[in-house]
Amino acid sequence: MRWVFDLFIDGVDCGSESFAEQLFASSEDASPGMCSGRHLISFDREASTLDEAVRTAVADLRRFAPNVEIEEVRVEGDSMRQLTAAT
Questions:
Q1: Which terminus of the chain is more exposed, N or C, with fewer CB under 10 A?
Q2: Which residue, 54, 53, 84, is CA-closest to 70?
């Protein structure tokens, strides 16, 4: 299944060029951004479960930003429909 979600983060400047380069090198399915003044990374990730998708995304991120703090995980609407249909 494909899961679309945002990780709201702190402890790094995801607007910096070096962060973006490292992110794109580690995750082809990730895009940095901002929402209401908060840093976020959007993922469009293939995985068996939402848990697996989020865990692997966080692991990819922590490879080059070990001090990043995950403040919130926000799941997109289509992924939520998949999640509720599976239960």
A1: C
A2: 54
Cα 24 to Cα 10, 18, 28, 32, 82: the distances in Å are: 18, 10, 6, 9, 27
Judge if pTM exceeds 0.70. yes
Q: What topology is assigned to 2-85 in CATH?
A: Alpha-Beta Plaits (3.30.70)
pLDDT in tens, 44-68: 999 999 999 999 999 999 999 999 9
SS (H, E, C) 21-67: HHHHHHCCCEEEEEECCEEEEEEEEECCCHHHHHHHHHHHHHHHCCC
At residue 85, the pLDDT reads 62
The domain locations on the chain are 2-85
Please give the torsion angle defined by the CA atoms of residues 5, 40, 73 and 56, in that order, rounded to the nearest 10 degrees: 70
Whole-angstrom distance, CA of residue 72 vs CA of residue 6: 8
Instruction: Tell me the two tokens of residue 23.
Output: 């992110």
